[in-house]
TrEMBL record, chain A:
It comes from Jeotgalibacillus haloalkalitolerans. The keyword Protein biosynthesis does not apply. Belongs to the glycosyltransferase 2 family. Keywords: Glycosyltransferase, Membrane, Transferase, Transmembrane, Transmembrane helix. This is Glycosyltransferase. One of its GO terms (molecular function) is glycosyltransferase activity. PANTHER family: POLY-BETA-1,6-N-ACETYL-D-GLUCOSAMINE SYNTHASE. It comes from the Bacteria.
UniProtKB/TrEMBL annotation, chain B:
The keyword Membrane applies. Keywords: Membrane, Repeat, Transmembrane, Transmembrane helix. This is HEAT repeat domain-containing protein. The keyword Amino-acid biosynthesis does not apply. SUPFAM superfamilies: ARM repeat. It comes from the Bacteria. It comes from Jeotgalibacillus haloalkalitolerans. Pfam families: HEAT. The chain crosses the membrane at residues 6-25.
Amino acid sequence: MEWLSWLVYTAAIVIIIYMASVSLLYIGMFLVAGPRIRKERQLNREAHIEEISMNKDTFPISVLVPAYNEEVGVVSTARSMLALNYPQFEVIVIDDGSSDRTSERVIAEFRMKEIDLAIRRYFDTAEVERAFQSTLFPHLFLIQKQNGGKADALNAGINFSKYPYFAAIDGDSLLDRDALLKTMKPIIDSNGKVTATGGTVRIANGSRIVRSEVEEIALPKTPIVLMQIIEYFRAFLIGRLGLSRMNMLLIVSGAFGVFEKNRVIKAGGYKVNTVGEDMELIVRMHKSIKDEQSDQRIEYIQDPVCWTEAPSTVSSLRSQRRRWQRGLAETLWTHKSMLLNPKYKGIGLFALPYYLFVELLSAVFELIGYVIIIAGLLFAFISWEITVVMFLATVVYGSLISSLAVLLEEWTYHKYPDVKSLLKLFGWSLTEAFWYRPLTVLWRCEGLVAAIRQKGSWGNMQRKGISEEEAA
Amino acid sequence: MVTVVLWISGVFLLLQVALLIYLSLMKQKGIRTDQEVSGVYQQVLSPYLAYLAGENDHEPDLPSDEQVRVKVLEKLLSGYASNIKGAENEKRMSHTAERFLADHYRGILLKGSWAERVNTLFFIEDFHLKTLQSEVKKHYLSLKDEDEEYRQSLRVLASFGDESVLQVLKSGEAISIGFMKECLRRLPGSSLEQLKADQELPVPVKLGMISYFGETGFYEHLPYVEAHIQHKEKEVRLKSLAALCQYRYISSADKISPFLTSDLWEERMYAARLSGLLQLTRYSTSLMQLAGDPNWWVRFAACEALKQMPDGEILLTFAAEGHEDLYARDMAKQLQTLRTGVGR
């Protein structure tokens, strides 16, 4: 049994070092993101975008809304898109072979009329069967195609779209009225040097949304959703901003991102046989930029511009996390040749290793850590000192970093209207290591196993609809 | 080891709790200030608007607390600035801003944070605080980064008609066409004439000007635009054709003809679009040919142009049923059902 004890002891030390290093890395990224956040903290963002809202040659955009069985929320999403404050855009809802009444809802609500198709084919997609144009809003279109998955639907949308930039948005998300202006601003200011941008995605559960607009921001009651809000703060305010500042952003959230169509076409469009198509596309765009030795950039903007419905049940959250982890694993595997490859500079030498060791494999390290803590306490496999240190490392790694993100959010955007919300978020963030993190770690490990076994499903979430009018 | 880790974690937690307490207090203070600002704003809104509009000579009292006073005035004047027209109203607004805000803004330009300075520059422009022109210019000259602060300084100077903006434009500095147009929109007419007269203007500036002229639709600039459709630079020719589409005018239809058979698909596309907008039936045959062009955009523009002709429906039906090119038939069918020219 001595060898087992030695093995557990060694694993414990490795895990402690790992967690301490990752915590330091988070703090380092926070320090990289900090100055930018500090600089823009008090900026009047309405005045900031006023000019481009009136500019007649602000690049026109096609807004693509892939929808698969989204009859509950699709009308609300489309209406939120139509209300966008932007000089020139079209909205294209892509019904990806839904078996519910997604198309019927859109056709009836917006009085659509069928149009004949003469589509360009940048990419091959599942067959596009019909297309409709709204008689009320002529810049609103619906295309109906055979089921091919979200990536395939987006490719079909790109084929159909007519503008040089496109925004991809999930069917269950809502955009702020100024979302397109804010997200396009870096592209416009850089005169096209920025080829894609992603904004901050917020969780809408708990907030009051009327007629597709967020009227009052409030916290949800369910702890599982509250924890996801905290998790999003950490991911966006620390992770993405830090990476974006170094031009190493690897994820523009599938919920909302803006892309230069030409660059996406050059990169080959969305890959259809993966569940992490959003990240996979960004990695391929980086590859295409570096291969061309272009100086184009992919940027993240700090403004919270997109609202999405978070899973509110354990089973839907589990399904989402398994899918995310599987997508991440597939993307890293697909682009393994870029990993640690100096040709791809920061992407190959930092961003991809970061996603491999921190975002993907941390689940495995953490799971082993939890097992050792529990086994250490129950069976005295290792000394109590090691158990305590591991426990503290876990707390620092999870709870304390999360509470730091909550404070960062309050310092920058302070979107929640009262002090009570701040205290509530801070309090819950300190509990992360004790229940939420072990759960997500377990699900992420399941996702990793599914990726290795090439198994798993899309795990679509049962939508409740986040707009009051929709629910009525 | 345990003690060290315990200490590190403890200190980290304590720091965060201290930060939490600080942020909570600041939040509470911020909420109170916002409520105060909102209350005062509601109270003075009507009387102050009456005063600014010259309907009442008595100026309502404003709070003695500088922070609240500045915020209330900024809110009041911003709303007022976006709704007024006429030199007299602008003058009264600028006069008020000058009395209460100019010194405060001078201080911010010298010592404020980056965000405060940018916000202030937006307000200086909105409130037409021309008395701050020299301070803004000095500030602009001290800037090292070409970021939003640099751009907003130039916008302010352009709105004051400052010569330094012309120098920046003429120097051919790498600024975006969009931003160039933002400056052009603000510059006085005399500055635009000065730019038009300059034979050595860099191409990007020409592009910005032509695009801006198309956008305004002012006929005094039309000859300048038309003169550039034969320019040796492809981008200048394309911008001119695009601007003519916005003008919906060309002095002689013959000038379109070479572009209908150009080697560049963009020129064919604009020529087709212009022919449709001007309903030049003499080009119907060319447009029918272009409906089968190898490029999707040209096919679309050609069929859209055919649709705009007086006998457009007949032409499209003919193309949809009998065009020798399969793609042209598809495109014509699409245009028969698609509502065009209505994009937001």
